[in-house]
Amino acid sequence: MTSDALSPLIPRSAIFADPEMAYAQLSPNGNMLAYLAPVEGKVGVWVRTIGQENDRVVARDALRPIPWAQWQGDGQHVLYLQDSRGDENYHLFRVGLLGHEPMDLTPVPGARALPLAIDFRYPDEGLITMNARTPSLMDVHRVNFATGSNLLDIENPGDVQLWLADNMLQVRAAVAQIAGGNFAIRVRDVAGSEWRVLDEIAFADGRPRLVAFSPDNRFLYAITAKNANADRLVQYELSSGAVATRFEDPAYDVVKVYIEPDTREIGAAAVLRDRLVWTPLSDSWALSLKSFEALDAGEFSIASGTKNGDPLILQCQSDTSPEKYFLYSRETCHATLLFHCRPNLLIYTLAAMKPITFSAGDGLRLSGYLTLPVGLEPQGLPTVLYVHGGPWHRDRWGFDPVVQWLANRGYAVLQVNFRGSTGYGKAFLNAGNREWAGAMRTDLLDARDWAIKAGYADPARCAIFGMSYGGYATLTALAWTPDAFRCGIDVVGPSDLTTFLASIPPYWEPMRKLLEERVGDEDAFLKSQSPLYRVSSISAPLLIAQGANDPRVKKRESDQIVQALRENGREVEYLIYENEGHGLAHQENLQHFAEVAESFLARHLGGRAEP
């Protein structure tokens, strides 16, 4: 490698720094902004008046970054979530604009609470889901923000995975997985009335998603692939069960729907092709979307809005430009830049992410992205196959700190949406059922072979790297095909699917049937798909990182394979982060991991490393 030809080295401290500002939220009247930003090294909640520089901290936690915040409908308080040491048992807190002592609205030890309906039209109360009654079941609770009272509103009968409130802040729809694995959409006519099945959807059609109720509460908007290849936006008439399609794409799933906050009408819907593509579903949104597209060449999403839906906050980003936020007036079609999330990266040239397609060994068409180092000839490069987690998720076009870090160090970065990834319709999703170490794994090898055949990748200098399922994919690649990769990096990946499924968080229990259908259910089969039982075949060096408090992939998953590797005399570095859960949230841990991983890759593939 001729490192002199590469663009200037971007410091890890710049690439992996917390955004200076992010997650902007407009107050109900549009006069103020709440956002997340660092406070003495940990992300906290800030507010400021629009058009002024009176930024101030209203919530902080010296022990852990705060991941989510939202205005209360009164415009005088902010709500936020926080867990303990990465255990994902979130509590909902409320704090005033002067930053006084926050109130824990869900003070139940060991419980997990998540927002269900925070509606500006109901400023004094909201709905949350919480497993206070039974650890495995998320019930609905009604919270009075002023008094802090927290009352059980609906008990989960044991199979409900999703709830939805109507426009009167009454829960009137739910999705359950029923006996046999199919899904049922249940509704009720009014609060307190009996639940009835509105529709039953086959497991192969995928779990439906509930979007909203129509303005008059007579129709339910949902996303489902029933009677279609890909997830489409439909509306159910509650009285008759009649279904009408509101928007669909023949090949790609509908992934976003914007509901007007004042009228509750559908404004627009989006599908994620190579990039996110919006389609207006009302006359007013046709004009707005045109002006959005003229604003920025990248992608945009609607991050927030006021009580009446004007103005909005737009989040824009691209592969070579980190996120920025605009305040947008729908009345005047005028946008004002609020801030860049990562202004420290604007001085650097970032690498472009190119969409790619190729055929798997069995002919299935696969899509993904290739990011090449700036300044190097795109041939014979050391290459990192970067595998997404989930696995019911997908890689997407846009700014990614990990991708930019690897490309800046001189690596071609290959990402593939292997079968089982979401976004490409139900047939593609179902093609991954029970194929965690089968066709999903060979799709990744086919991606590697495509990059080699196309001339981009040096076959002797390929690595595989991923988190969660991506970590598992790293272990399986090295265990099943020992010569395919020079080295691997596994972050919080399961090593034994029997112990993984036996120790899922209790609130995943209603999803157990889904997991069994998509992963497997018999011990013999699960062990046949587990890299722990093929550890003697692993010869490539490994770097493994694990959060000690991970509730999804327990520390045991990494402990047991590290022990087995060491007993077999294999090279493995093991990093344990005592204050982390499923991933790395703390800035100091992320920086440390990047430093170790960068040196590991440089040692085995020959890329650059920051001194």
TrEMBL record:
Gene3D superfamilies: alpha/beta hydrolase (3.40.50.1820), TolB, C-terminal domain (2.120.10.30)
Segments forming domain Peptidase S9 prolyl oligopeptidase catalytic: 397-607
Keywords noted in UniProt: Hydrolase, Plasmid
InterPro entries in UniProt: 6-blade_b-propeller_TolB-like (IPR011042), AB_hydrolase_fold (IPR029058), Peptidase_S9_cat (IPR001375)
GO molecular function, one term: serine-type endopeptidase activity
Any one of the GO BP annotations: proteolysis
PANTHER family associated with the record: DIPEPTIDYL PEPTIDASE FAMILY MEMBER 6, SERINE PEPTIDASE S9 FAMILY MEMBER
Name the UniProt record assigns to this protein: Peptidase S9, prolyl oligopeptidase
